[in-house]
Task: structure prediction
Amino acid sequence: MTVDFCLTRRVPGRPKVWKLVFAVLLVPVCVSGGMALYKTLRMAGGTDTAWVPLLTGAVSWLTIYTLLPKPMWVYVFGHEFTHAIWTWLCGGRVKGMKISSNGGHVLVTKDNFLITLAPYFFPLYALGIAGIFVLGNRLWGWGGALPMAAFHTLLGAAYAFHVTLTWHVLQTRQPDITSQGRLFSAAIIFLGNVLVLLIAVPLLTGSVALADAFGWWGASLSEMGQWAWGRLSPVIRP
Result:
């Protein structure tokens, strides 16, 4: 199955060699981001009121994913609509969209790597559920234990939906990925998912500050830079 987007006006792309070089330069950022996410998850691990329903929702979806037919039309719609959202955010226009269980595409007037790769790190349905509950809490006071448990359960299921079906479609050749280069795409998708989780975990659990999570990312990257400089400086200096 192929999910793709097409341009109504082709925008010249940069040579893939530059994306390859940039992807290599992003490796330390990816590693340090992964380290920061691991530390954030470890520090937030004791928040049972959030993690139990989140994991319950995720396991529930995994059961559905394993035993029942995959709802590919729902996934493809979210995938293509995410292309559309990021096209609008980047100042482009959407000319049309085609959705089916076997694949889809969206016609847009603007192209960049964020528009192309956004569906692989932007969990549309999970963010939609979060938006609904934020609105419901403001308008109708959905702040009680039962509504919050329902929110976390649905959120866990929606994020698991995003992860499993994204992985599923990546098992086939995707023009989104090949157009950007595999290594560059992998780096951007990984960083996008790390960024989403580094924002989401502190907000959901309340046990880690956002500033701390991103501070750990910066500290890890700084330590890696110092380590690399310590080994390269004797070679570089005359």
